Amino acid sequence: MAKNLVTTVKEKSILQEIAPEYWEQACRELMKQDRILKKLIPKYGSVFLVTRGDAFTTLARAIVGQQISVAAAQAVWDRVVIASKKKVNPKNILLLSVEELRAAGLSGRKVEYIKDLADHFDSGRLHANQWKDMDDESVIKELSSIRGIGRWTAEMFLIFNMVRPDILPLDDVGLIKAISLNYFSGEPVSRHEAREVAANWAPWRTVATWYMWRSIDPIPVEY
């Protein structure tokens, strides 16, 4: 999960430290269905997927973290927080100039993306209040209409913000690497092969994916 962002100690207070209601059931069933997860899940049984709960923050952090290291992404995000007077929301992002956002470390392209994201939220063009009742693909389609947000980012949103239970982000480098190491002895894995492995995880592919990530990076990373 190379694109994900580290959560600082200060931010822990705003994270929801309660396991998703389906987590325990999912772990039980996955351990019955999959021999690898039967061994893997008990190693990390005391930790679980957590969510920050704020849609704009989740998506903004995903944009900031695109194509840079975890450490670099956190440093840039910290500067964006400071520039936004420690309250990152659509209105505050729209009030910042291009120069101020560039000074925080954002590329010109990412400034365009985060401004467009803020405008989508501020103008009400997104149906955020309806997302909880929409299926996964419908949410992905709407989010993908925002500049700089593709399928991977939308899937990260479904996992880390909406905590949907059955998301399989096949574009995630970390997931493919973990499947390769755990199921194919490190041999290269195609999307088709990864999907076949994950068929055994349904309807809890989010949970299985989360444990795959843990197998290559034991420290949980949140948006």
UniProtKB/TrEMBL annotation:
A Pfam family recorded for this sequence = HhH-GPD
Q: Name one GO cellular component term.
A: protein-DNA complex
Gene3D superfamilies on file? 1.10.1670.40, Hypothetical protein, domain 2 (1.10.340.30)
Name the UniProt key words of this record, in alphabetical order. Answer: DNA damage, DNA repair
What GO molecular function terms would the record report? alkylated DNA binding; DNA-3-methyladenine glycosylase activity; DNA-7-methylguanine glycosylase activity
Q: Record's SUPFAM superfamilies?
A: DNA-glycosylase
Q: Which CDD domains match?
A: ENDO3c
Q: What is its EC number?
A: 3.2.2.21
Gene Ontology BP annotations: base-excision repair, AP site formation; DNA alkylation repair
The reply to whether Zinc figures as a keyword in the UniProt entry is: no
- Recorded catalytic activity of this chain's protein: Hydrolysis of alkylated DNA, releasing 3-methyladenine, 3-methylguanine, 7-methylguanine and 7-methyladenine
UniProt keyword DNA damage, yes or no? yes
Residue span, HhH-GPD domain: 64-217
**Family matches, as SMART domains:** ENDO3c
Query: To which protein family does this belong?
Result: Belongs to the alkylbase DNA glycosidase AlkA family.
The protein's name: DNA-3-methyladenine glycosylase II
Taxonomy of the source species: Bacteria, Pseudomonadati, Pseudomonadota, Betaproteobacteria, Burkholderiales
